[in-house]
């Protein structure tokens, strides 16, 4: 297979990384920012057209406030870094909840890409319930294209999902777009990101047949 | 973690197994029947409460007719074997399409379990589009429980999904129920099923933390 068009990134293991360094859990998130920008650049330079980052979900907001504050701040910084880079950024999540940071409201409409840049989506206070809810509200749904009626309609089908931190699950990540995605797991924690992780994932993807269930 | 309550089985690799034995692809499906019954029994005897088998999806029906006929026949036989065993069987899929075998219509309402038996779900002509479509039709949806409005509402959240045949993807398997599931891949083809595959998957599951995104 060629290079994936759309890559999903689940940057897990920040808290375990912090603990392994003798720090409290919430200290791990800041160390996930540079890896995020590097992952975006590797995708862009490899010919990937769209990258989606798992920021945080509505489930995650049940954690202690020192953690929710830390990952919210990291998402704000991540969005600004992607904008500075020139990505066509879309922040997507439930803006009607107090857990959605006001600073990110301007990015809930996709920004324009600078030359040579690609689409980047950042899930912020995203929930799969929230995503599918608009389907229940829609009128005259064309049932061959129900993905057009969900909140995340502007995010395309995922080809490859890479998860750091060893867990082998989606944890609420874009269920409709993940339906046919190939899933690659990196055991290292996200703050220990290394460009070889991406190269290994892309090389593995090349060995997969993509049939879309056919 | 304890034993999973609900286990999903993706029995892939039948066609590759047949080819590796010098047979034509469609010959592989019959050899997947005994493994299915054994997997059901292992789950039941381990304390699992519900097992869901990926039979075939609407995507799969695009394959050559000698294959669709072979996997349809295998699904009919699988359903009868599970009924004979005493499982509380539910066959679930789009019954309004000609690809749904009439022989399985009686099982689209869940049968009653014989003593000591558990729930077994078999996806037959299942499609994720078809599954989510009823959400678009539903009136007065309680948005905290949207899974109650999908076609597969009677299938509970999956804890563990085991896929044979080495592929690392869901291929359309119950997207809503798979959202938090841990995903275990067996490289062997499904007809080479061995009880140690199940034991390995259960032992691996025990080492996972289950947070449901929290």
Observed structural traits:
homodimer; alpha/beta; Undecaprenyl pyrophosphate synthetase; 5 helices; globular; Di-trans,poly-cis-decaprenylcistransferase (chains A, B); UPP_synth-like_sf (chains A, B); UPP_synth-like (chains A, B); EC 2.5.1.31 (chains A, B)
Give a quick summary of the entry.
The structure is a homodimer of 214-residue chains. The first copy, chain A, is of the alpha/beta class.
Topology:
Two copies of one chain form a homodimer.
Chain A: E1 6-10, H1 14-20, H2 33-46, E2 50-57, H3 65-85, E3 88-92, E4 119-126, H4 128-137, E5 160-164, E6 182-186, H5 195-206
Parallel strand pairs in A: 1-2, 1-5, 2-4, 3-4, 5-6
Helix pairs in contact in A: 2-3
> What order do the strands of the largest sheet of chain A run in, or round the barrel if closed?
3-4-2-1-5-6
Based on CA atoms alone, the radius of gyration of chain A comes out at 17 Å
Q: CATH topology of chain A, which one?
A: Undecaprenyl pyrophosphate synthetase
Structural class, from helix and strand content of chain A?
Answer: alpha/beta
Query: What's the number of extended β-strand segments of chain A?
Result: 6
Q: What CATH architecture label of chain A applies?
A: 3-Layer(aba) Sandwich
Q: Gap between N and C termini of chain A, in Å?
A: 16 Å
Main interface by residue count: A-B, 37 and 37 residues
Helix share of residues of chain A?
Answer: 25-40%
Assembly type:
homodimer
In N-to-C order, the SSE pattern of chain A is EHHEHEEHEEH
